[in-house]
Design a protein that fits this description.
By secondary structure, the chain is mainly alpha-helical. The chain has 14 helices and no strands. Helix 5 crosses helix 6, helix 5 (103-114) crosses helix 13 (318-344) and helix 13 packs antiparallel against helix 14 (348-377). It is flat.
Length: 378
C-alpha cells in the first residue's frame, strides 16, 4: 500500500479505488479540498446568525466537511501545496453567508450538496458520498424553515412583480403597435401601473385574509377540555368529536376515556394523539399576513410595471423604446425567475428562462393583436 492509501485509511473508510495519483488526480483532489474548506466556512458563517438547534446543526455540518477535508489532505500528502481557490459557486456562497445569511444561501447550499461528484469519483469513499446525500436533506430541512417564513409574502411579491412586468409590457407594446402617439403609450403605461397595483394589493389582501379565516375555522377548539367533566358518562357525543377529526374508533374511544378522567397517565401513548392545547405562534405562518401580502403585491407590481414604461419616461419613442422596454423586462424576468429557482432549490437558469419565455410570449401576442387592431382601425 502506498503512502496516499495508508493516509486515506486513517480516516476510517477506504476509498473506492487507490492508485498512484496522476497530475489530473492531484488537481481534482486539490479542488475538492478547497471546496470542502469553503463549504465548511459557509456553514460556520451561517451558524453565527443562528441560535439553538439550527446553530448546532450548521456547526455539525461544518465538522463533517472538515472530515472530508482531512480525507483529501491525506490523499494529497506532500502534493497538497498552497491552498487553492474554491470554485466560483463556493466563493459566492461564502460571500452571501457572511453578508446576508438568508434562506437563499441555504437553497444554494442545498443545490451544491445535491451536485456532489463523490458518488462517481473512485477516490472518494462511500461514506463521503452518503454524507453529501444526507447533507442535502439536512440543508433542505433548514431551508424549509426559512421558506415557510417567507412563503406568503414572497409568493405575493414574485407574483406581483411578474404580473407588473408582463401585463404592462403587453399593454405598452399593444398600444404602440396600434399606431398611437408615444405620449398616449406613456399615459397608458402609467394608468396600467396604478390600476394594476391597486387591484393586486386589494386582491391579495382579500385572498390571504379569506384563506387565513378558512384555516382558522378548520382548527379544533378547546371545548373538549371544558365540557368533558360535565358530560353524561353513559351518553355523550365526545366520541363523535374525535371521529369527526379523523381518529379511528379505537383511538377516539381512548381519547374520550382520557378526557373523562377514566384512564391514568400510564395509558397507551400510541393512541394519545396530539393534545388539545393552544398552539404557540402563528399556525398559518406559511400563508402570510393579509397586510404583508397586500403591501408586497402592491409595491412589487408597481416596481415591475414601471420597467416597460422607463424608455418612454426618458423620451424614447418608436421601435427603439419598445426594444429597450423588452430588454429591460427580459432582464427583470430572468432575475425574478432565478430568485424563485434559488428559493425552491431548483435551477435558477431554468426558472429564469421559463419566466422569460412566458413573459415575452405574452407581450408578442399582444403586440401582434395591436398591429391587427391598428390596421383595421386605420
Amino acid at each position: 500500500m502506498d503512502t496516499g492509501s495508508r493516509r486515506a485509511g486513517s480516516t476510517g473508510t477506504e476509498p473506492k479505488g487507490i492508485r498512484q495519483p496522476s497530475a489530473a488526480d492531484i488537481r481534482r483532489w486539490r479542488q475538492y479540498l478547497a471546496d470542502e474548506r469553503a463549504e465548511a466556512a459557509v456553514y460556520r458563517d451561517l451558524a453565527q446568525n443562528r441560535q439553538g438547534e439550527e446553530r448546532a446543526i450548521l456547526l455539525a455540518l461544518a465538522e463533517a466537511e472538515g472530515r472530508h477535508e482531512a480525507h483529501w489532505l491525506a490523499l494529497l500528502g506532500p502534493h497538497a501545496g498552497k491552498p487553492r481557490r474554491a470554485s466560483v459557486r463556493s466563493r459566492l456562497l461564502g460571500f452571501l453567508a457572511r453578508n446576508f445569511g438568508s434562506v437563499f444561501v441555504l437553497a444554494l447550499a442545498q443545490r451544491a450538496e445535491a451536485r456532489s461528484p463523490y458518488a462517481k469519483d473512485p477516490n472518494a469513499t462511500d461514506a463521503m458520498a452518503a454524507d453529501e446525500q444526507i447533507h442535502e436533506e439536512v440543508v433542505r430541512g433548514l431551508a424549509t424553515r426559512g421558506r415557510n417564513r417567507l412563503a406568503g409574502t414572497f409568493r405575493a411579491a414574485v407574483f406581483g412583480a411578474n404580473d407588473g412586468l408582463v401585463s404592462n409590457l403587453s399593454l405598452v407594446m399593444g398600444m404602440a403597435a396600434s399606431g398611437v402617439a408615444s405620449s398616449v403609450v406613456l399615459l397608458s403605461g402609467i394608468a396600467g401601473l396604478l390600476a394594476g397595483a391597486m387591484s393586486m394589493g386589494a386582491g391579495e389582501f382579500i385572498s390571504v385574509r379569506s384563506q387565513r379565516e378558512l384555516l382558522a375555522a378548520t382548527r379544533p377548539t378547546q371545548v373538549t377540555l371544558a365540557a368533558a367533566p360535565k358530560l353524561d358518562l353513559e351518553h355523550n357525543e365526545l366520541l363523535l368529536v374525535y371521529l369527526a377529526r379523523g381518529m379511528t374508533q379505537e383511538a377516539a374511544q381512548h381519547r374520550v376515556a382520557e378526557r373523562m378522567g377514566l384512564l391514568s397517565c400510564d395509558c397507551d401513548p400510541s393512541l394519545s394523539l396530539q393534545p388539545d392545547l393552544p398552539h404557540a405562534g402563528d399556525e398559518h405562518e406559511a400563508v402570510g399576513t393579509a397586510w404583508g401580502a397586500a403591501l408586497s403585491s402592491f409595491c412589487f407590481f408597481a416596481s415591475g410595471a414601471i420597467v416597460p414604461v422607463l424608455p418612454f419616461l426618458f423620451g424614447m419613442t418608436g421601435v427603439a423604446a419598445l426594444v429597450t422596454a423588452g430588454v429591460l423586462v427580459g432582464i427583470a424576468l430572468l432575475a425574478t425567475g432565478g430568485a424563485v429557482g434559488l428559493l425552491s432549490g431548483t435551477s435558477p437558469l431554468t426558472r429564469g428562462l421559463r419566466q422569460l419565455g412566458i413573459g415575452l410570449g405574452a407581450a408578442l401576442v399582444t403586440y401582434l393583436l395591436g398591429l391587427a387592431f391598428g390596421t383595421v382601425v386605420g
